[in-house]
Structure formats: C-alpha cells, structure tokens
Write a structure and sequence with these properties.
Oligomer: single chain
CATH architecture of the largest domain: Sandwich
Radius of gyration: 26 Å
Distance between the termini: 26 Å
Shape: elongated
Structural class: alpha+beta
CATH class of the largest domain: Mainly Beta
Order of helices and strands: HHEHHHHHHEHEEEEEEEEEEEEEEHHE
Helix content: 10-25%
Number of helices: 11
Length: about 450
C-alpha cells in the first residue's frame, strides 16, 4: 500500500489548491469540479475545529498517560477525550455536526447553519480562547505589534499576511483600543471594593473579622485580588482559612475559586481552593482542593481532592483547608487535606471536618504564580461574594490552631488579612473593566481569525 499512498499523495491532482479560481473553460466544461481541476474545499469537522482553536491559542494539553480519563468540553484536552453526555452534548461539537456517540455513524451530515456562526461569535469558550491567543502573542506588552500580527497569521492560517492585511489588522486594533479607552470610566455606582461587615457578617461573633470585607464581583472592576506573597517553595504544608460568603454559583460546571496559586495548566505546579457549581460532576456546592505536583516517584500528578462538604449560598461561612503534600508517614505514597466548614449564621452549627488522602507528595508550592483571591491566573472561575478575613499559615494546622479558637497558640501564619477598607501590602485589584484595552482589542482581532473561512475550511 505504501507505493500506492506515495503515488496518490505526490500526484498533481492531490496537491491541487482550492484557491484556484475557475477559468471560463473550466466553468463551462466542469463547473461541479467532477474532474478535480482544483481541490474541493472542506470544512473542518467538529473535533478538528475545537482542536485547531486550542492549538492556535497555545492551550492544547496532551494526556500524561496512554489511557486518560474523559474530560469536560471546557478543558484544554483534545476533543477525542471529551465525554459524551446524552442530555447535554458539548455545545461547540454539537453545533458542528458531531455524532452523539451512542451508535455508529459511518457518515456525518455537513450542515451550514446560523447557529454555528452564533456559537463562534457569542459563546464564551471561543472568546476565552481568543484572549489566550492574544496573551500568548504578548499583545499585553509594548513589543512590535506588526510582528505579533505576522505571528498570529502564521499560527492561524499557516501563512504570512499581506501588507494590506497587516495594515487593516493594525487599524482595527487601534480603533477598538481607542473606543475602549474612551469608554473606560470609574466603577459603576453599585461596584464597591469593600462592604461593611454589618451587611453580611453581622451574625459572626466568634471570629475577629474587622470592619469591612472584600466585595468580589464578576464582570466588574473588582473581580479578584492578586497578592505578591513570598512563599517557601520547599514547604508543601500550609493552611488556608477564610471567613467568606458566596452569593451565587455558576449555572454550568464552572467552579467558584476562593483562593489559588495556579493557572490550571498541568505543565506547572500549583493549587486552588474552590466550590463546585450547578452541573459539576462532583455535585453542586462541593468544597474541593485541586492540586498539581508530583507523586512518590517524582512523576507529575494532578488530583482533585473532594470533601463532600456543601457550602451554603448567601450565608457567612468559615472555610479552611489544611494541606499536606508530603507523605503522611515514612514509606507512604499519600498526603492528605483536612477540610473544615462551619455555617456562621447559625450559632448552634457544628464545625464539620473531613480528612481526605491524595497522591501529590511534592512540589506543590513550586509555582511561578502569585496568590490570587477570588479567582486564578486564567479567565473565569471567579468567586462571587465577600471575603471578610483570610489567613495563610505555612504548616498544616490542627483543629485547635484555627482562627475559630483565638486563645490557641498562634501558628506559623504568614498572612492574616481583615480587609478594613484597604488591600493587603503588595496587592492589586484585577477585573474585567480594568483590563488592558490594547490586549482586549487584540483578542477581538484573534477572535475574528477564528471565525474566518480560511480557519474553518481546508484549502
């Protein structure tokens, strides 16, 4: 078969381009291209569309083993690993005619519908990929934008842009940046960085929380706080404690991140503490600790530690995770996380706790990222609510060392923030409205590339 393959693949017919415009003779003799005087244009399949977007944005993630688990459509893994859900198929794959996966499909329909364009233009997933694409090209710095546009064309279309295309791209980005800069105003009247604790935390009596709380709001100036906090990378034991309130959870499977030190890229170490949303595989409002480090053999290890403690919405709560990413005993292959949860709106509520083993036993804090309150170093997965007090201790605390028991000896606490009308030292707000207008405009340009026929069709 190899000789036949070589003959086909090197033939003039196979190597024809679809860009060739028909001459008058070809239009009269063979208007339907039955004789293959040019390559017939073919739209990418649903999986190819999704994978091409992930490759172009630089986010594609390849499995660490030969038989990876199935993943959500929001993950950066290849489409072949995306799970098939009977009642809720992946929106992008489904719109581009992906088979349901429950029976053989020897042929796929090839439809062209308005919903496909609407999906690529309006759905948050392609827009988030466009933002990642723009960031990977470093549109957020002051480098040579002309060279960045050339790189964008090479990654999206595997060709260099013409001078006219470069001029139009620069003009588009400049125009959008000007519009965004002109529209950039002070926060709306309902956007405030701090709220009095008397509003949401009046029932909290047993913990010192100061006078005000951080108000973390999605799609606002005040989405999350980044803190440049020095952490010992060799210390893989620490405890996060928070007095907080969660106003709402996402309607899909997106998690609500309370605090993190990671961007969810498995090529780097890191972690985040979060609460699940409505359609999570772990059930709604489940307190999780997600980590990426190494196992006992030194191999990369990603793990989701599930507490099965349910965080109430709209109530002040105490949340803590005492993390040990070291073997719990000599020769052991496991570390452990102890979760704590208490409803502070009920004076009679008990402190719930559970200890869960995991396989990450090293390099958990070997992360290049700052500490982020209310999200992580990626788009989305934000906390919607208030944080009245947050502490970070560089050891795995026991129950009697928690801030719930103020008379206990003070542990190795490296951060203790009560947010009395100001941010911690070396901290800055980060939010949608405070984003870089130039970067956002470049993301719009990248989004247009994803929506072009040249990207979606094989020529």
């Amino acid at each position: 078969m190899k000789d036949l393959h070589r003959l086909i693949l090197t033939s003039t017919t196979y190597r024809m381009t679809a860009r060739k415009e028909p001459t008058s003779s070809e239009s009269e003799t063979d208007p339907s291209n039955r004789l293959l005087w040019r390559f017939p244009p073919r739209r990418l399949s649903s999986e190819e569309v999704r994978d091409a977007i992930l490759v172009t944005s630089g986010e594609i993630r390849f499995p660490e083993n030969a038989h990876p688990d199935s993943v959500s459509g929001t993950s950066p893994d290849r489409s072949i690993y995306v799970k098939k859900l009977r009642n809720k198929p992946d929106a992008l794959l489904n719109s581009f005619d992906s088979p349901l996966g429950f029976q053989s499909a020897p042929r796929r329909p090839e439809t062209t519908t308005p919903t496909q364009s609407l999906m690529l233009i309006n759905n948050t997933w392609p827009m988030d990929r466009a933002k990642a694409f723009a960031k990977s090209l470093h549109f957020d710095d002051d480098g040579d934008r002309r060279q960045k546009i050339i790189s964008a064309y090479r990654r999206a279309f595997s060709r260099l842009p013409s001078e006219e295309e470069i001029k139009k791209a620069l003009a588009l980005i400049d125009s959008l940046s000007t519009i965004r800069s002109d529209a950039k105003q002070s926060p709306a009247s309902d956007e405030t960085a701090f709220h009095p604790n008397s509003e949401k935390f009046a029932a909290v009596k047993e913990i010192d929380i100061g006078g005000s709380a951080l108000r973390l709001q999605r799609s606002s100036t005040y989405e999350q706080v980044e803190v440049d906090l020095p952490l010992d990378r060799e210390t893989d034991e620490f405890t996060i404690e928070a007095v907080t309130e969660l106003d709402s959870i996402y309607p899909d499977g997106t998690v609500n991140t309370l605090v993190s030190r990671w961007d969810d890229n498995r090529s780097t170490s890191g972690w985040f503490l979060c609460v699940t949303s409505t359609k999570s595989r772990y059930q709604p409002r489940n307190l999780l600790f997600v980590m990426n480090g190494v196992d006992q053999k030194g191999a990369p290890k990603y793990e989701v530690v599930v507490s099965d403690l349910r965080v109430p919405v709209g109530k002040p709560v105490y949340i803590a995770a005492a993390v040990s990413a070291r073997p719990i005993s000599k020769g052991s292959a496991f570390g452990e996380v102890t979760f704590f949860l208490k409803d502070l709106s009920d004076s009679k509520a008990n402190l719930e706790s559970v200890t869960v083993k995991h396989s990450v036993v090293g390099k958990l804090n070997d992360s290049p990222f700052p500490l982020v309150i209310g999200g992580r170093k990626q788009v989305g997965h934000l906390w919607d609510g208030q944080v009245s007090r947050l502490t970070l201790s560089q050891s795995s605390l026991t129950r009697d060392q928690l801030i719930l028991y103020p008379t206990a000896p003070t542990p190795n606490r490296i951060a203790d923030w009560k947010f009395s009308g100001k941010l911690p030292p070396n901290a800055n707000w980060y939010g949608q409205k405070s984003a870089n207008p130039s970067l956002d405009s470049a993301a719009d340009f990248c989004h247009l590339l994803f929506n072009s026929n040249e990207f979606l069709y094989l020529y």
